């Protein structure tokens, strides 16, 4: 896919062969170095920069990012995050907003791959932080070179591609030459956990190597879970409205993957609560599985349905309605975290189907409905090397 001079250090298997992609571009050393390697690839269809508007001078940095990409003969699409006051969780909210803006651009352009410059040092930092949070072996498996929509629904329909996880920060930036990247002052702020971990690992190369080795070993466990999920899905059925039926009472690891998907949510589901919910299914009564999903076992088939509370919200205000009547526009819109809707005109109207939320298209013209439940399940079960 890539022209030969730019292949060094890039995992080409992370890309879907022959498919166009966009590049997330901060203008920092990592993304600038990756752009320098990819600039001649005709499948690179967009270079995307987000101005988070979190500090004075961010607009000037966006303009500088535009000029940096221009030196590599690439134009940049700049998006500005419009937000109010943010008191806490700044990095998490900024991440979701960033991917939301870039994901919407990709969907509008029909681009299904978004490339980032995450490298081996980022991987080691991520594994260290997840271990510290007690996220278990799954967290210790780190980031994948190819991952469908890891931020939901911000990246609905978009696969995140990380083709330089095998390079260190120093190796990646070796392609910068005389280019001078933007230096983000937040990279010096020890109030952020990642910055503290980065400094620790910089002085401990042995621990960095152990963390990367651990991630590689734990990734094998993820592939084992995919194999089990494929077995669970053998003989499954799904309605066009996203109601899933399985021919067996699925094990906990499969349920932990499927329940958030059917509910149109990010997850993860609380495994202890999910285990208790699975045990209650034996009684044959509907059970709230978490993440907006209802389960029912009739002794032969397990049915997972979208919880109707998504139409009404909770009386205490703890959960807002997400399956709401929505106008259909030419711009693709994620509805209830489960469908991607676009069309010349029309309305998508939620309707209750017993214990499940369905929908009806009213006054529709040239309406397209993409079942994201089916899409997410297919990606969750595909082999790690699959595209």
Structure keywords:
12 helices; Rossmann fold; five-stranded antiparallel sheet; 20% strand; alpha+beta; single chain; 387 residues
Structure write-up:
With 387 residues, the protein is an alpha+beta fold. The chain folds into 2 domains: 4-217, HUPs (Rossmann fold, 3-Layer(aba) Sandwich), CATH 3.40.50; 234-387, no CATH class. Helices cover 36% and strands 20% of the residues. A 6-stranded mixed β-sheet has the order 3-2-1-4-6-5, sandwiched between helices. A 5-stranded antiparallel β-sheet has the order 7-8-11-10-9. Helix 4 crosses helix 8 and helix 9 runs antiparallel to helix 12. It starts with 20 loop residues before the first strand and ends in a 6-residue tail after the last helix.
CATH class of the largest domain: Alpha Beta
How many β-strands, per DSSP?
Answer: 17
Task: Report the β-strand fraction as a percent range.
Answer: 15-25%
Unreliable runs, pLDDT <50, ≥5 residues? none
Helix content: 25-40%
Overall mean pLDDT: 92
CATH architecture tag of the largest domain: 3-Layer(aba) Sandwich
CATH topology of the largest domain: Rossmann fold
Give the class from helix and strand content and strand pairing.
Answer: alpha+beta
Q: Specify the oligomeric state.
A: single chain
Discrete helix count: 12
Q: Rg, please?
A: 22 Å
Widest sheet, order of strands: 3-2-1-4-6-5
- What is the total domain count? 2
Short description:
The chain has 387 residues and is an alpha+beta fold. The chain is 36% helix and 20% strand.
